[in-house]
């Protein structure tokens, strides 16, 4: 019916020192290099968690077919436990086992998990790598029936933290305003306020204060949060876009709200972008008091938001959309904006992007020949 659960017993004496990871992929040879389904990585349809002396894989396949689930593992080096950063450094994992999952029927439509850091869910990873112990939520899933959740951790090490809230189809930067984190003595307190009911992911990153500030924060743990009620709904500017074939010409390009918000395109002013390369950037001049969000789909209905990264540069005055298209087709990028303090996101720009690698290669050849 599209779902499967795999439980692996881990010996008590090594349960806290073994790191697990996984990869879900299509079984047919012609599809083995396909790592995504409708723009979402296949790994986001697997929920890995640790429960005492078991590692659990809950798989919810997005489409009928045959799949392989490969599970990797390795033991953290005992001799490096005294090094503050050793347990957060990358190391090689070995394939421990492999399962073939055959899905002949889907009972329900499956959605990808929030786009958090890869790997296991729950606080076990934070305990293992940072000796960061949960005081409030000891399991990977949090079910909330109110707008607010508070998480508490304790640690005997001085750590620098970063907390990110994720939700499918919503800009991470927009969600930053709903997260508060503070330290008190040896405790870390994270306060979350949710703008709408739905499924959220929480990523916690950490770095020992004794480490150089040049070192990147390492992923400590993540939680899956299901919110059923909120006091006040806040518009996320996440309405589903229309298919490009259904849009009329005057819906491409700049919308009236763009100039009202003081936003100006710096690179691509035309709404229809033809024969575009697989990777390119779109830039806008944006006032610092304006927040942006976006949708990106591949016709007819493939969610491709993961293939666009938005960054703010030049002290927030420039918004850069890094577009990455891995398949030929028609893509639709819709950009939203709002002033800080406003609730509703307004549509500011629509792009129809045509990516045809063969046409792009042909155009490059003709250009060289003309020279």
Automatic annotation (TrEMBL):
The record's InterPro entries line, in alphabetical order, gives:
Ig-like_KY (IPR056564), Transglut-like_Superfamily_Mod (IPR053041)
Q: Which residues form the KY-like immunoglobulin-like domain?
A: 2-114, 134-234, 254-355
The positions making up the signal sequence are none
- The source's superkingdom equals Eukaryota
Its protein name is KY-like immunoglobulin-like domain-containing protein
Q: Which organism is it from?
A: Bugula neritina
* Lineage summary: Eukaryota, Metazoa, Spiralia, Lophotrochozoa, Bryozoa
């Amino acid at each position: 019916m599209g779902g499967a659960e795999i439980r692996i017993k881990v010996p008590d004496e090594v349960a806290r020192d073994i790191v697990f990871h996984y990869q879900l992929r299509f079984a047919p040879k012609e599809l083995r290099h396909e790592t995504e389904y409708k723009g979402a990585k296949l790994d986001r349809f697997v929920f890995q968690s640790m429960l005492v002396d078991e590692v659990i894989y809950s798989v919810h396949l997005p489409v009928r077919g045959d799949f392989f689930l490969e599970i990797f593992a390795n033991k953290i080096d005992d001799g490096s436990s005294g090094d503050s950063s050793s347990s957060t450094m990358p190391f090689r994992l070995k394939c421990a086992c492999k399962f073939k999952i055959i899905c002949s029927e889907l009972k329900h439509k499956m959605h990808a998990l929030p786009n958090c850091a890869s790997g296991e869910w729950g606080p076990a990873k934070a305990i293992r790598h940072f000796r960061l112990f949960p005081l409030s939520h000891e399991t990977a899933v949090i079910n909330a029936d109110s707008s607010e959740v508070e998480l508490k951790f304790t640690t005997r090490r001085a750590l620098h933290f970063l907390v990110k809230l994720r939700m499918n189809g919503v800009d991470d930067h927009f969600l930053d305003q709903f997260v508060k984190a503070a330290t008190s003595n040896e405790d870390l307190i994270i306060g979350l306020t949710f703008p709408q009911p739905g499924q959220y992911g929480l990523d916690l990153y950490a770095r020992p204060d004794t480490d150089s500030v040049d070192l990147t924060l390492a992923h400590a743990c993540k939680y899956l949060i299901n919110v059923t009620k909120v006091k006040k709904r806040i518009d996320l500017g996440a309405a589903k876009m229309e298919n490009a074939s259904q849009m009329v010409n005057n819906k491409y390009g700049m919308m009236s709200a763009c100039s009202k918000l003081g936003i100006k395109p710096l690179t691509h002013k035309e709404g229809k972008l033809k024969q575009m390369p697989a990777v390119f950037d779109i830039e806008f001049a944006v006032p610092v008091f304006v927040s942006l969000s976006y949708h990106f789909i591949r016709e007819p209905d493939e969610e491709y938001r993961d293939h666009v990264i938005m960054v703010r540069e030049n002290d927030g005055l420039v918004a850069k959309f890094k577009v990455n298209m891995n398949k030929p087709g028609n893509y639709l990028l819709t950009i939203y904006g709002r002033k800080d303090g406003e609730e509703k996101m307004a549509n500011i720009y629509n792009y129809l992007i045509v990516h045809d690698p063969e046409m792009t290669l042909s155009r490059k050849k003709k250009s060289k020949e003309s020279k």
